[in-house]
Amino acid sequence: MSADGILRMIxxxxxxxxxxxxxxxxxxxxxxxxxxxxxxxxxxxxGVAFDGSSIPGFKGVEDSDMVMMPDTETVYADPFSAHPTLxxxxxxxxxxxxxxxxxxxxxxxxAEEFLQQTGIGTVAYFAPEPEFFIFDDVRYESGxxxxxxxxxxxxxxxxxxxKEEGGNLGFKIRHKGGYVPVAPADTQQDLRSEMCRIxxxxxxRIERHHHEVATAGQAEINFRFDTLTASAxxxxxYKYIVHNTARQYGKVATFMPKPLFGDNGSGxxxxxxIFDGDTPLFYRQGGYANLSDTALYYIGGILHHANAxxxxxxxxxxxxxxxxxxxxxxxxxxxxxGNRSAAIRIPVAAVxxxxxxxxxRTPDSTSNPYLAFAAMLLAGLDxxxxxxxxxxxxxxxxxxxxxxxxxxxxxxxxxxxxxxDEALDALQADYEFxxxxxxxxxxxxxxxxxxxxxxxxxxxxxxxxxxxxxxxxC
Length: 474
Description:
Blueprint: H1 3-12, E1 17-23, E2 29-35, H2 41-46, E3 48-51, E4 65-70, E5 76-77, E6 85-93, H3 104-118, E7 123-135, E8 137-142, E9 147-152, H4 189-201, E10 206-211, E11 218-223, E12 226-227, H5 228-248, E13 252-254, E14 268-276, E15 279-280, H6 293-304, H7 306-313, H8 319-322, E16 335-337, E17 344-346, E18 358-360, H9 369-385, H10 420-429, H11 442-460, H12 465-471
């Protein structure tokens, strides 16, 4: 849509406000709202000013003026505002008109440009599958003298004996027993359907929704694949709708990877493929799982750089509470067809040549999607350019349930890092592939590592409640 088209939409639909948004390094959206009567053609030429020093990891106070430049292709009506409002995603520029090299959306766009420069293909498609929990109550505190969290859900198995007004109605979902049950066990069918309705009205193409494996309201809604930057935009829209629809129902949604101890966590499996025009480059009939050599090299790049990638695809201390064996967590750095115990799964059911793709199962939704998708693409392209064959490096294929292998059989299978610090160490040692095409810069990576080190340390130095259980009576 052009700027003139947006201005016509404002006039024809009685729009009162235009909400301009950008995304910080952690993947959180920020916004500034302008009265619609103050938005004109010059707004789309000159942009909207904001203070970069108030955004962690952006600018210092001595050089803080920054500009949001609206992307007119991203506009949609805010489904939650009481006053008619349009939402527009923006790119970040410096006052002299240069793209800001720490703008995550700009990094995603540069990754797409680099793909075309390589001559390998013209477009990369991404399809994230974010999982999330819907709770009825959440409470937490981290202070000098106390630290705790508590969440609750009407369908949680720990409430099977709770006395409620009118009696306990039962049908609680057992631990690891939540995969696609029908009502009354699944209490959130209507809520997920409402989320999907709003997503579709806001421009997302929804494929399906269902309850996920864990107790206490774990959910998944799948939306249609798109190009790299567009998929990241869609994920930001998706999370905004999930959070706010849950709140309208008096509930709270979280994409935190591991909010519950002893049950499955929430991941964000990411499907990926590359096309040259209309020609899919990952398909070759008769190959392993009908994969082409290009696809195998792409897999090799991701698995070869996986430890470093995780600093961008799983960038929280909580991420590594999910990445432990025994909870369907993809901790094994191998690939396999149809095998959910591998870090990379090749979907094989009802797959056409154009649907041939790889699924990297390790990422989660604490990642910034613009940075995570860009990093995955660069790792895969590095694999293609350097012909990194995963079969020759011991990355599979592994067509067995890896969780059932003996320790001796698993000895040669690489696993993901066990902490955020280990992933940051890996990124510090292996980031040259991210510099290709000027997509990431050394300065960006150094700044990112410093921010995440501070985050990890803030958790490391705090007393954990479980330490009282272990050591108070020493």
